[in-house]
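Possible regression after last week's pipeline update?

I re-ran a chain I had predicted before the update to compare outputs. Posting the input and the new output here so someone can diff against the archived version. Not blocking, just want to make sure nothing changed silently.
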Amino acid sequence: MSTDTLMDEVKAVLVELLELEDRADAIDASTPLLGELPELDSMAVLELVLALEERFGIAVDGEDVTADAFATLESLTAFVAHHRR
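New output (post-update):
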């Protein structure tokens, strides 16, 4: 799967989980997430991790969940790509 395709799929999970359909077009690789999207609070991060695990068949350890991983859509996509290996 290409990086662009993976990013589109990660974005789709993010948009659906946080109900951001009205702002989906404004979200790109450099869009700040954690700390910028009010919908992405600590509970939503946990829900997002679970949704990503389910969608991509990955397993994420709690120690891997860092602010850096959830900084932007690009970093979140890299996080998923890393766990798919």
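Follow-up from reviewer: compared with the archived run. The helical segments are 3-18, 42-56, 73-84. Marking as no regression found.
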